[in-house]
Backbone:
């Protein structure tokens, strides 16, 4: 942290700030400049809170310098993390394509879609059994029945399954059936859920909060890693902005930023970002071109009858074409 | 809902949309205009999803017309809801002042602050026993010990207490000790927690999510009311924007909007919105002037030593002056 | 500026950064810490660009420390600026109330509204002769005819007038008629216009850009001051956010921030922030309670027939009541 | 427009709204539904302002239905616009690559970079002679000298040049030298400048405003087209959001949305969106994959010495590799 003093700060005020820093068990080094003095805080063992110093007399501003996360940082682990899920590896250089419906609606629906996903070259299957819905009156998912259907999908098509966990109460159940446990955007800072996920044996798929900074998102992953689970997959799914032509704004620059700051793999979900099918397809190609570690797409055999998110779900034939485009883009990135 | 057809939509496409509407058990009324046809959807018994129609052939746009919430709507209950907490009434025209530290740190800290709050004319006491923190390495609250201290505060100073519940696991415990159960901004769409809160006997204090629209916020309250608990207090605490000079941007226009749309009382928390003490004081006065049903303020006897949020906590003497200003503004609003 | 090196930066990389700093005519002071070295840049005579250093080998981040503005800074001029406009002083502790229609539509309209404004205790009159409109097909203002009407208002009611200038072509004309020259939100970074305003004899009313940070806004004022015109009045009018229930989100925390950072007076325009009459009234009271130096309000005698912004314009009797509330709030702020 | 009445609106209020609609020369058709009446407005010849009706007694909401733009709409001109600039065509299916430095700094700098751009397969050259800068103390461009250098670039390398015009005063001069006249993000709603551009003989390159909706952006293009200039090229360059890891957030979904709504070509500028070189490269590939009509990139031979935007400028060898990747992605989009 760097503390910038006001131009008119007195020598006494500078000394008092130094004492306040030392009271927190750190070293303070004053740096006299042309106009004013700044004070660098060094050798801090724990995260410092800029608010501790910001309003001391004579202080103009306290500026954090180092990042607050540790375990998730690439400085801690320079090579990227690879996560094994069944016979799929996430983070090994090959893009992972995860696809399926928003919600599992029936066995026949899930099986039909899974068949299309498998045939088009998808690597994993997604589908919600517990659905977080804005309205209490909307379809909330099939619950355990949905999880059982997912287990059948895995068996039948050899596709590992990703599904969302919504609370502590159903965590054990989801953990039993899923290959990868998803924590949704609305739960990104549900810290109790993060801790529980940190104790799980399965990899965790952590969606970015709707208005989370990359730092906050990585700190949420830090919660999981701090409990002992290092298999965290990050998922960019768009953030909330003033823009109204799409459901959210896909923040693709988060991909290179996360890849520089952290060793964890990052996947892009263009379906929830766009919210409309005709935007999903070009955005999915963009996600491939930005070198994400994978892509998650909503696909439905009859989108116009889907119980949720139909308008953003691709038709199977659209998905099939998209997969070929993604693989071709992936090849370009390797060849050049 | 209103479905707007493209200029070049065929008669057949219009008829197909009408059939799709009727398949959802609604009436469809086509409205031919100068350039194009629109189709009004009438007599819908349940919430419609615009995505069901948006991508049918010939459709340009589907526009939702009525609001998705029911129980929280002022149309359902034109007079405002009054909520009784001990001998304090929220929503009866008198502004309720809720104050206390961010976190309960010790009995002596809580008692000292509570004494100041009571003497300054505060109506209720706030303080966290379970703290949601961005970093897993930050102070996480005293847990049940903190709740016990809050119970002592209530007994000693006759101040009802508001405290946050973070998950299902500690809900019963918080419900036992608290007078009002707070659901924090990060949990506004933790739907499992909302349902549990809907089954509680105590009033619920529902903070607005960091980037929630008023509609989403009211739908979160709808979750609580749908389970049977009508005592919901809304709390505006600032939203995330591009602005960097304050922690969040206080959205005061939400107050008249909520008061028009809903019968639930709304309280303003300028402390979390501002994030800095010198902004909290003027914003608290603003919240009074905007005619909120109450104000929640962080106060600390030694803010510079606080374990969290010290920089936004007022000194007791600042709070005392602020209370007098708030009461004077309240009087103006009644007199004119 | 503070340059933070990577943990693994070599001694050579540190030395190269020091050379790069010295090549910009500044002093570089390395500060070795526990994990990494930082380098403070001192004695810079001009604004530094963090991008000069950010991508040098071994650099993790370059963090600006001091603010980029000079003339507008309160550090340059600790007492606040007072601006005299006719017999009205802005910045002397008394809140200035500026009111009038969005656009001057006719002499009778302007005169009728001005009479109401004067009688209600307004200090200045506002009204557009040149209107920036999103659509080329909307009413664009009366031009010089509008300015002449404003001059009559001033003469008849002894109310100084504020009106907007849209471009260099009409600047001389506006300057001739207006008492205060307004630069609108869409022109906040029209640097040619700012420079011209800096050469004007009249005070300038600088609205905040729709998504401008306070720093950018103060830099726009710096453009005006750098040309020699020190009479700049800042106006907060709401910023663009994800919020949809109001036209913009009024950022009231900008008021204490500007008052701390700069010596220039700051006025609040709740009409454009809210966009709806029933929000304007409570927000206007909030602006008074936050201790702004003044308030600008749209008033119209027949809002439902207004050629622009009718829905946010107050009826004269609403304005009259509001003025009394504002004066009462002002008195409280002085008394306490 | 659709006017939604309150549930409790009286028959008289409905009739008064109908009269208000007819007073605006439109037809009103009431649509009685289950809960409430709505009123459709038909046969409007001009843009309607929802605010005209929104606050009439009994009205709950007025909802705009059709888009406000005409000339720029794809409904007016279903096939896409092609714009010829020298021997380059924009909008014919081939991606146009525009590259060059942020600012023209000297003849040798411009020539050196132009040579790299040409050799790498760039189609057009960009470079600022007049620079809009946040600070009045920053480098403001070489002015006419810069324009003359651009003319030499064109002559020497047969590359059409794009350069920014900042105000009416220098418009004629820029028009004389440039092949394409750029209107920058801060001037997107400088309506006087848009009108002047509408009278120009040269194509106009219209950058999206920093917080402009697509509707506002298209309305800005409508200003240009309404004056007679149909050769407008739109440029997405990132919007302002809460995100801090990039300078702006690139809104790639704007590309398919603009391509659906309008016949005008759209180009993506990842350099200003990202603000950092290591983000520019993947975002540029994304822009190709989203099927934009072209890409604009900042390139500099010595970015670390650039007078502006050095940190976001690519090295020539990075640009050369990027061009090959973009062409390969373009080929995929054609082949599938």
Residues:
């Amino acid at each position: 942290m760097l503390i910038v003093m006001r131009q008119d700060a007195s020598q006494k005020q500078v000394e008092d700030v130094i004492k306040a820093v030392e009271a927190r068990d750190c070293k303070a080094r004053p740096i006299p400049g042309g106009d004013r003095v700044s004070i660098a805080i060094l050798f801090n063992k724990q995260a410092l809170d800029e608010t501790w110093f910001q309003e001391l007399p004579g202080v103009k501003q306290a500026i954090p310098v180092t990042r607050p996360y540790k375990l998730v940082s690439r400085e801690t682990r320079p090579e990227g993390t690879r996560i094994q899920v069944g016979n799929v590896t996430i983070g090994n250089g090959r893009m992972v394509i995860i696809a399926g419906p928003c919600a599992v609606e029936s066995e026949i629906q899930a099986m039909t879609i899974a068949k299309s996903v498998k045939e088009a070259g998808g690597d994993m299957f997604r589908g919600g059994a517990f659905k977080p819905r804005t309205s209490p009156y909307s379809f909330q998912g099939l619950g355990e029945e949905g999880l059982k259907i997912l287990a059948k999908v895995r068996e039948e098509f050899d596709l590992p399954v990703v599904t969302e966990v919504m609370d502590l109460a159903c965590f054990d159940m989801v953990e039993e059936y899923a290959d990868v446990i998803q924590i949704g955007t609305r739960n990104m800072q549900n810290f109790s859920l993060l801790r529980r996920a940190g104790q799980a044996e399965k990899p965790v798929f952590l969606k970015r909060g709707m208005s989370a900074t990359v730092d906050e998102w990585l700190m949420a992953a830090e919660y999981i890693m701090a409990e002992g689970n290092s298999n965290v997959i990050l998922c960019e799914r768009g953030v909330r902005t003033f823009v109204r032509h799409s459901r959210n704004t896909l923040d693709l620059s988060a991909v290179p930023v996360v890849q520089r700051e952290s060793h964890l793999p990052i996947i892009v979900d263009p379906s929830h970002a766009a919210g409309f099918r005709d935007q999903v397809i070009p955005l999915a190609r963009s996600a491939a071109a930005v070198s994400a570690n994978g892509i998650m797409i909503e696909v439905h055999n009859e989108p116009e009858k889907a119980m949720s998110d139909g308008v953003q779900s691709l038709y199977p034939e659209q998905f099939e074409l998209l997969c070929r485009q993604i693989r071709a883009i992936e090849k370009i990135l390797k060849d050049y």
Summary: The mean pLDDT of chain D is 92. The interface with chain A takes residues 211, 213-214, 239, 241-246, 249-257, 260, 273-274, 278-279, 282-283, 285-291, 321, 324-325, 328-329, 332-333, 335-336 of chain D (CB under 8 Å). The first strand of chain D starts at residue 2 and ends at 5.
